[in-house]
Each structure stands twice: as structure tokens, then as C-alpha cells.
Specification:
The complex is a heterodimer.
Chain A lengths: L6 E4 L3 H11 L3 E4 L5 H6 L7 E4 L9 E4 L2 E5 L4 H5 L2 H6 L1 H6 L6 H4 L4 H7 L5 H9 L2 E6 L2 E6 H4 E3 L2 E2 L6 E7 L6 E8 L9 E10 L2 E10 L6 E2 L1 H7 L6 H14 L10 H22 L5
Parallel strand pairs in A: 1-3, 2-3
Antiparallel strand pairs in A: 4-5, 5-10, 6-7, 6-10, 8-9, 11-12, 12-13, 13-14
Helix pairs in contact in A: 10-11, 11-12
Chain B lengths: L5 E3 L5 E7 L2 E7 L5 H8 L18 E4 L2 E4 L12 E3 L13 H8 L9 H14 L5 H7 L11 H17 L1
Parallel strand pairs in B: 2-6
Antiparallel strand pairs in B: 2-3, 4-5, 4-6
Helix pairs in contact in B: 2-5
The chains are: A alpha+beta, B alpha+beta.
The structure holds flavin-adenine dinucleotide and FE2/S2 (inorganic) cluster (FES) (2 copies).
């Protein structure tokens, strides 16, 4: 369908963009890669009066590290992050998620931060943020603030960002050589949104798992961590039996919905399989074959 | 890039300059119009097809600065200053086909052919970056393009035929 009419703005600076969002608030939408906003408008699920295209703002285009933490600006496209050696080195779990995000043509336009701000419950990047403990950097005409990923996702397509705020970047904490992580999912076709997926990471010292994060997507209104399963593996040595035990707990704890793509029971079983797979891949990454 | 700030109220147009298949073009477009519509209606290049107009089918795939994108999921104003290649830009000036067109022709990769421009443009980018893909890699790279007729087998064979043609040319 054709897009409804809107007032179009392409500010050259961040200050101008923030002033526009302050002036138009709820009637304005940020346009980053457009790979979710344009379908939303085409299908008339949303009809903003003002569209603020942030593609010309140079301050939003960086891929950078500071003290080992990786920062991606709001206009870094999926494809740029996917081919960046810096992302591969400093945030391998982000790199592992990217090939799962849509198709190549989508990744050439869509942005990592746009995917986080859009907060689709079945999207990979919000779950990756949760698992890695990422921080979202927000700016408005009146100031800036930071929000931890754990406090950012509030519900289906709903985040803690206010209408007048722009997410300017996301930072991922330093990744250590004793960490292993993976993004595993099952979708009907490659590139489709997953029926269920998992972004996980573990930290191992002296052969023992010191910390673990398991964030599932496609099974609730936001990505969710399963603390009960994390508690099972922490303090233990990686083994198939341990991971199977965690998988059982995951299947017990999750209560996904049924929809046209999969029944709730099917999703729980997939989640259990992914738990074993994701944890085994994570352990493998730090040289502990399971 | 550092573009100047731009604004257009509802009904106003913006001047957009792009290079399409090697020729520089200028259009005055309303921001709401998709790149696909401008390619078809203003540039008159109707080889770019519109199946779904919301990013699902891939029929509208074109190359933007060499990379495949869905032209229905771009506003024409976002393409200012870029270089676009459409299906009309693939064949040589003498009318001889691009190896990928030839490969898909030889393998009968088309039935109604509505999806073909999108598959061809995606395949061009695939073979440029990976001249010898496995069958699985071909399927994965083309997974964003839908075909309601062929069942995909002949399309994959078309790309494999193109790989052989390009190999023989070297
Ligand atoms: C066919 C298809 C398949 C897809 N499959 C997947 C998939 O498997 N997994 C997946 O994760 N995604 C998938 N996507 C979505 C894709 O990843 C989008 O790129 C992403 O969700 C949004 O990023 P964007 O830059 O395109 O954002 P836009 O479409 O530009 O914006 C999306 C929303 O976020 C807001 N927004 C964007 N940037 C900011 C910002 N900096 N600050 C505040 N608000 C902002 C916008 O206002 C809008 O509401 C798919 C899309 C399509 C069309
Ligand atoms: S018409 Fe663009 S993806 Fe279907
Ligand atoms: S040949 Fe008819 S849709 Fe592909």
C-alpha cells in the first residue's frame, strides 16, 4: 500500500532533530532504516504527522570502543555491524545475532538501534541487549539519560523511551576471553522472525560457570531472562546433563502464547532444545566441548 | 555526507537526484512516495515489480550503491545522491544477457516471472560477493524473495547455471 502523507524532516544535526521531537512529540516518528516504520505506515498501523529522518546526522554513525565497551550509533545499519571486525571482536554475541535479522536486503537498510527502539517481541537484538547487559543512551531537547536494557523493554513494541526522546546509541560492556555466548533460534524460513529464540552467555573460571544469562525472544511481550535456569548452571561445570536440567526448567517456567506460527507447547519444546544448544555452543566457544 | 537540513510539508515536493542504470536523473517528489513508485512511474522503469508493498516478497529489490535493498521500503527522498541499478540495467547495450539472466533463462527459472526481477537483483549481489556459492548459500541468500509458481528448485538451478557461465567466461 502507498504511504499516507506526512510532514518530512531531515535534520542535519542532533540538536535540530531533538528540537523537532520536542515540538511534535507524540505526532512525530523517528525514521532510521525504515524497515519497520515504513511497513507500519503502509499497513496503516501507524500514521505519524511528522517523520524525522535521522540519516543525515553524522553524530549517529559511529562504531567505536572505549575501555573495551562497544558503542553503536543510531544510524549504524545491521549490515555495517555484521561486517565490522570491531563488533566481531568486542561483542561476538551481537555479531552472532545479525545473520538472523531478516534478509540481506533488510539488513542493508535497517539499523541495530532501530531494532532495539522498535522492540518487536520476536526480534533478536532486544534479547541480545538483555543478555549482555547493554545500556541505551537517550537524548531529548532537555538533556540525556541512560537506561539499562533490563529496564528498557516494557511490552509489545513499547519501551521506556519517551516520544520526545531519541535513542542515540547502545553500548555493550567489555567481553572477556572467559566468556562464551550464542544466539540460536528456530524460524519457519531463514530470515523470518523466530518462533522462539535464545541469546545466551556464560562466564567460566577454573572450569566452573560463574555467571549465566539466558534471554528468550518470541515467547512473551518482551525478551525475558529465565533466572531459574541460570541459577541451575551457575557454580557448576558445563556438561550435557547440566544443560538438559536447565532446559527442563526453561520449559517449565516459560508460558508463551499460541499463534498461527506455533502452539505454546511447541514453543516450550523449542525453548528447551535451544537451551541445550545455546549453552553447548557457548561452552564450546571457551574451549570446553560439551 | 553532511547533507543540509531539509523539510517538506504535506503536499510539497523535494528535488531528488540519483543515477539510475548509469544515467543521472532528477525528480521532484513528495516524501511519502516510495523509491519503487518513482522508479516505475517517474523513470518509467516498470521492470521493478511491486508484490506486497510492505517488505515481505522481495519483488521490488534493486541495487542501491551496489547493495540489494527493497525499493518499496525506501522513500525516494532517502535515495538522494545514490546510484541505483534496476533489472533494466543488467543486460549489455547490444542486448546480450547478463550471465545471471542467461543462467536463469537456460534453467527456466521463470513461470509467471512476477518475482524474477527481485531474484535476479538479489542473485547479482550474491554472485558478486561469493562467485561460487553452495546450494545452501544460494537458498539462504534468496530466502528474502518469494515465488508463488516455481517451487524455487528451478531458480536455484538458474543461479547454479549462472555460476558455470561466469566460470567459463574467466
Ligand atoms: C521482511 C522483514 C523481515 C524482518 N525480519 C526481522 C527479524 O527476523 N528480526 C528482527 O529483529 N527484525 C526483522 N525485521 C525488522 C528489521 O530488523 C528492522 O530493521 C528493525 O526492526 C528496525 O530498524 P530500522 O532502522 O529499520 O527502524 P525504523 O523502521 O526506521 O524504525 C522502527 C521504529 O523504531 C523507532 N526508532 C528507530 N530508531 C530510533 C531511535 N534512534 N530513537 C528512537 N526511536 C527510534 C521508529 O520511530 C519506529 O517506530 C524484518 C523486517 C522486514 C521488512
Ligand atoms: S513489493 Fe517490496 S517487498 Fe514486496
Ligand atoms: S514465477 Fe511466478 S511468482 Fe515466481
Amino acid at each position: 500500500m502507498k504511504n499516507p502523507p506526512f510532514n518530512y524532516h531531515r535534520p542535519a544535526t542532533l540538536t535540530e532533530a531533538l528540537d523537532l521531537l520536542a515540538a511534535h512529540g507524540d505526532d512525530a516518528k523517528v525514521l532510521a532504516g525504515g524497515q519497520s516504520l515504513l511497513p507500519v505506515m503502509a499497513l496503516r498501523l501507524g500514521r505519524p504527522d511528522h517523520v524525522v529522518d535521522i540519516a543525515a546526522i553524522d553524530e549517529l554513525k559511529h562504531i567505536a570502543t572505549a575501555s573495551g565497551a562497544l558503542s553503536l550509533g543510531a544510524m549504524v545499519r545491521h549490515a555495517q555491524a555484521e561486517t565490522s571486525p570491531m563488533v566481531a571482536e568486542h561483542a561476538p554475541v551481537v555479531a552472532a545475532a545479525l545473520p538472523h535479522v531478516g534478509h540481506r536486503a533488510i539488513r542493508n537498510r535497517g539499523t541495530v538501534v532501530g531494532s532495539i527502539a522498535h522492540a518487536d517481541a520476536a526480534a533478536e537484538m532486544p534479547a541480545v541487549c538483555l543478555t549482555l547487559g547493554a545500556t541505551l543512551h537517550l537524548a531529548s531537547a532537555t538533556g540525556t539519560r541512560e537506561i539499562a536494557a533490563a529496564d528498557f523493554f516494557l511490552g509489545f513494541f513499547t519501551t521506556a523511551a519517551l516520544p520526545e526522546e531519541l535513542v542515540t546509541s547502545v553500548t555493550f560492556p567489555p567481553w572477556s576471553a572467559t566468556s562464551g555466548g550464542a544466539v540460536v533460534e528456530i524460524s519457519r524460513r531463514h530470515g523470518d522472525y523466530a518462533m522462539c529464540g535464545l541469546a545466551c552467555a556464560i562466564d567460566v573460571a577454573d572450569g566452573v560457570i560463574e555467571s549465566a544469562a539466558l534471554s528468550f525472544f518470541g515467547v512473551a511481550s518482551t525478551p525475558i531472562r529465565v533466572a531459574e535456569a541460570e541459577a541451575i548452571v551457575v557454580g557448576q561445570r558445563p556438561s550435557p546433563a547440566l544443560f538438559a536440567q536447565a532446559a527442563e526448567v526453561v520449559a517449565d517456567v516459560l508460558s508463551p502464547d499460541s499463534d498461527i506460527h506455533a502452539t505454546a507447547n511447541h514453543r516450550r519444546q523449542i525453548a528447551a532444545v535451544l537451551t541445550r544448544r545455546g549453552l553447548a555452543q557457548s561452552a564450546d566457544q571457551i574451549g570446553i566441548p560439551v | 555526507m553532511n547533507l543540509p537540513s531539509i523539510r517538506a510539508a504535506i503536499g510539497e515536493t523535494i528535488s531528488v537526484t540519483t543515477t539510475i542504470n548509469g544515467a543521472s536523473r532528477r525528480f521532484d517528489v513528495e516524501p511519502r512516495r516510495s523509491l519503487a513508485d518513482v522508479i516505475r512511474d517517474e523513470a518509467g522503469l516498470t521492470g521493478t515489480h511491486l508484490g506486497c508493498e510492505h517488505g515481505v516478497c522481495g519483488a521490488c529489490t534493486v541495487l542501491l550503491d551496489g547493495e540489494p535493498v527493497r525499493s518499496c521500503l525506501m522513500l525516494a527522498v532517502q535515495a538522494d545522491g545514490t546510484e541505483i541499478t534496476t533489472i533494466e540495467g543488467l543486460a549489455n547495450a547490444d542486448g546480450s544477457l547478463h550471465p545471471i539472466q542467461q543462467g536463469m533463462y537456460d534453467a527456466m527459472s521463470f513461470q509467471c516471472a512476477f518475482c524474477s526481477p527481485g531474484f535476479l537483483m538479489s542473485a547479482v549481489a550474491l554472485l558478486r560477493d561469493n562467485p561460487n556459492p553452495s546450494t545452501n548459500e544460494i537458498r539462504e541468500e534468496l530466502s528474502g524473495n518469494l515465488c508463488r509458481c516455481t517451487g524455487y528448485q528451478s531458480i536455484v538451478e538458474g543461479v547454479e547455471t549462472a555460476v558455470r557461465i561466469m566460470g567459463a567466461q574467466q
